[in-house]
Specification:
Structural class: alpha/beta
Strand order of the largest sheet: 15-16-17-14-13-18-19
Number of strands: 21
Number of helices: 14
Strand content: 15-25%
Bound molecules: nicotinamide-adenine-dinucleotide
Helix content: 25-40%
Shape: globular
Distance between the termini: 69 Å
Radius of gyration: 24 Å
Length: 487
């Protein structure tokens, strides 16, 4: 069995305990992971705190930080194949997706490498004589980063990249469900030459490791991606250290198709939106809202595409849908489908577990018209699409906004004015028109409502890892006048 280690203070180390990682395609253990507990968390946070204030890191210029990030980007590109294989092995995400995504992760590091020396302060035209006042943007401090199992290299890059550009130090907690790619990535951080303690990467269980990290008194900011329930724990923990938080949570994103859309193209986007990553994507377009006049036609196209999907070993380049990451997740998907069918949803296709080993679930479409299906409100984080139909634009908008979440939305229409109206009316952090699931380092990403707050990607994210220091400098040599009159 392969063995992995934590990366703390520039050294590779075992955790206080170990646990076995399961290959979701077979259901068998394939690697041993270090389990960080409170003492390991302490060491990692203390290393990050020390590196923030002492040693070479705070003395580097922003341009030098950028150069280290460029080096890291090159290393990620060079080792993308190996990282992709590890992510596929440990989480079941199919290799054709992990290879493409991780090659692109290098571009995120490159983008933030370029941003490092463009984080500027400002000068204030202050309303007092003989006074220079300016704002410095300083690193927010020690950042705790907690990520879920899906797309860990991507979800950590959108945190590590901007945080390093801003001059922060960090402890990254990889998910216990598939930490291999992030623990391997630590080798690249080491090789790139970041000073010891700047980036620490550990893994362990949520209630022990994650909780100890998020309430640690030396943590200044918590960047969390995961489910809303866990986010509540994280926010409660932050009451201990009063750290600021940014939360990237789940979604129940609407995918609206009007009768005038190019249905074939919309169907491909819908397949990508719900069945890619076996539906384990926070932006999954999991609620199809389709104009009634084309509902049957669109569902016929979708059903044919869903049934043609190649399910198989995630390590095979031809496979399109692999297993879910954990047995727990597969059981959750299966149970929610069963509850939805009992509540009156109609089964268009799928709904079953294929025979054989591994945590597979067939791509599933549920027709929810006329039912109060729980599939409409609850996140599957799996390959299940719920369908509703509408007659008017107002009805489409009302259904789209009938959710506590607000991460993403898709609109498919050839009517430009309608697309503009809907784009403004939809309560979601990302709206895609005639496309879906497109991301870029240049474009901010994040949600409204239960989908969280804060943005990842883009310049805004780097600024979020800074805090403002206001500096007042008196430029007069005259004695300070009357001390009892405030100036
Ligand atoms: P999760 O919330 O169960 O776990 C996420 C991380 O939190 C893990 O590393 C876990 O160990 C840690 N954790 C668990 N309990 C904790 C605690 N008490 N204190 C601190 N940390 C704790 O999420 P998951 O089930 O691994 O992932 C699925 C969820 O993530 C879905 O809801 C999905 O929508 C969401 N997600 C959101 C985005 C986004 O960018 N908006 C991206 C991917 C996934």
């Amino acid at each position: 069995m392969q063995r992995f280690q934590c990366y703390i203070n520039g050294e590779f180390a075992d955790g206080e305990a170990r646990f076995e990682s399961i290959d979701p395609a077979t259901g068998h253990a394939w690697a041993e992971m270090p389990e960080a507990r409170e003492a390991d968390v302490d060491r990692a946070v203390e290393a990050a705190r020390k590196a923030l204030h002492d040693g070479p890191w705070p003395k580097l210029s922003a341009t030098q930080r950028g150069k280290l990030l460029y080096k890291l980007a090159d290393l990620v590109a060079e080792h993308a194949g190996k990282l992709a294989e590890l992510e596929t092995r440990d989480t079941g995400k199919v290799i054709r997706e992990t290879s493409a995504q991780i090659a692109y992760v290098a571009d995120y590091y490159r983008y933030y490498a370029g941003i490092a020396d463009k984080i500027e302060g400002s000068y204030l035209p202050i309303d007092k004589p003989d006074m220079d006042v300016w704002l410095r943007r300083e690193p927010i401090g020690v950042v705790a980063m907690v990520v879920p199992w899906n797309s860990q290299l991507f979800l950590s890059a959108v945190k590590i990249g901007p945080a390093l550009a801003a001059g922060c130090t960090m402890v990254v907690k990889a998910s216990e469900d598939g930490p291999a790619p992030l623990l391997e990535f630590a080798r690249l951080v080491h090789e790139a030459g970041f000073p010891a303690g700047v980036v620490n990467i550990i893994t362990g269980f949520g209630p022990s490791c994650g909780a100890a990290l998020s309430r640690h008194p030396q943590v200044d900011h918590i960047a969390f991606t995961g489910g809303p329930e866990t986010a509540r724990h994280v926010v409660r923990n932050s009451a201990e250290n009063l750290a600021s938080t940014s939360l990237e949570l789940g979604g129940k994103s609407p995918f609206i198709v009007f009768a005038d859309a190019d249905l074939e193209s919309a169907a491909n986007a819908q397949v990508a939106g719900i069945f890619a990553a076996t539906g384990q994507s926070c932006v999954a377009g999991s609620r199809l809202i389709v104009e009634r006049s084309v509902k049957d036609r669109f569902l016929r196209i979708l059903k044919a595409k869903a049934e043609a999907i190649r399910i198989g070993s995630p390590l095979d380049m031809a496979t399109e849908v692999g297993p879910l990451a954990t047995e727990r997740q597969r059981d959750h998907v299966q149970a929610l489908v069963a509850r939805s069918l009992s509540a009156g949803a109609g089964l268009v296709t799928g709904g079953t577990v294929p025979e054989g080993a591994g945590f597979y679930f067939r791509p599933t479409i549920l027709d929810c018209d006329g039912s109060a299906s729980p599939s409409l409100d609850n996140e599957f984080f799996g390959p299940v699409l719920s369908v509703l139909s509408f007659e008017t634009e107002a009805e489409a908008l009302r259904i789209a906004n009938d959710t506590r979440y607000g991460l993403a939305a898709g609109i498919f229409t050839q009517n430009l004015t309608r697309a503009h109206r809907l784009m403004k009316g939809i309560r979601a952090g990302i709206v895609w028109v005639n496309t879906y699931r497109a991301v870029s380092p240049i474009a901010p990403f994040g949600g409204f409502g239960l989908s969280g707050h804060g943005r990842e990607g883009g310049l805004e994210a780097a600024l979020d890892y800074t805090r403002t220091k206001t500096v007042w400098l008196r430029t007069s040599d005259d004695p300070i006048p009357d001390p009892f009159v405030m100036r």
